[in-house]
Amino acid sequence: MDTNTQWDDSINLGSVIKFVPFAYIEVSFFNANSHNLGLHSQKQISLKPKVAIVILNFNGVHHLRSFLPSVMATQYEHLEIVVADNGSTDHSLEVLNNEFPQVTLITHKTNEGFAGGYNWALKEVKADYYVLLNSDVEVDGQWIHPMVDLLESNASIGACQPKVLSFSEKDSFEYAGAAGGWIDALGYPFSRGRVFDVCEKDLGQYNQSSPIFWATGAAMMIRSSLFHQLNGFDDSFFAHQEEIDLCWRMQLLGFHLYACPNAKVYHVGAGTLPRGGRKVFLNFRNNLIMLTKNLPLQELVWKIPFRFALDAISAWKGLLSGDFSFFRAIVAAHFGYFSHILTGKLKRSKSPKPMKSLDGVYNGSLVWDYFIKNKQHFNKIVL
What we know:
By secondary structure, the chain is of the alpha/beta class.
């Protein structure tokens, strides 16, 4: 460059930026009268990745009024907040239009469940990162930054989750994901801070960012390109464990998932599921479908029969204790599993890997440790 070339301080910055393919640009303006490259002024332009917080809503007007204000107070300079309405029949649309006009609203005529709902919604949303957020979650203002920084630091991290604490007991972990999801060798999911129905106090014991098996669907940040590469959730799940299946398939592609405890949210959640009914049906059925989709054949041939036996024990235990609805839900789940396969709905992964080769897998039995050895905390099981 000729150092005597004169530069006009009023140069159009936009015309310079569009030719520079960097996420962070430093532009210097030079003194036109100097023979040296003396720095006249310096401006920094931060082009942060775009983040879209997408809240799936179905008849959740009470939650929207209670929790959407905290989401809207999120401090991040390149943010869009989207509510995807999944065919609500309450006053959700009226409230969103009248009370939250700043929020992007997209609508669907029918309730497609968690899996199908997010699949249609995210086709309409353009961003670098999606945050899938339940409508009953309170957030603090800075919760997005640590997760963006984590994903930006390592291209092999496909998704992450914040620390999920209980809204009603803010010093305790919440059922849905706690401090990051794990899974045992037989496919039982648990979390750092939550084993079956036992949720630990948050004493800082899981404050380190570390690899996990699955990130909670209640508050997951995921690369948008990866979500679409995986064709989103398996919508045949409808709801429950679809995020674990998605994260499993993510790992099969070579990506990692991480807990990001520097970010935290407070979830109302369901906690312990009702004993019986559709939730139990979906959890038992979908867990078996997930294992059949993603396990290598040499593990599948013995783990599925073993899981059927454990499910049967659980069902009969419920029946003998007088809980017929729980028994009936598990029986229906097994019939639903076989129907899913026989009707050709199973979407088996192309390149399954041994479970022990994946992050966040406990190679023992959670059932044995919890019910027989009375180990109820994550750090007593995973040493």
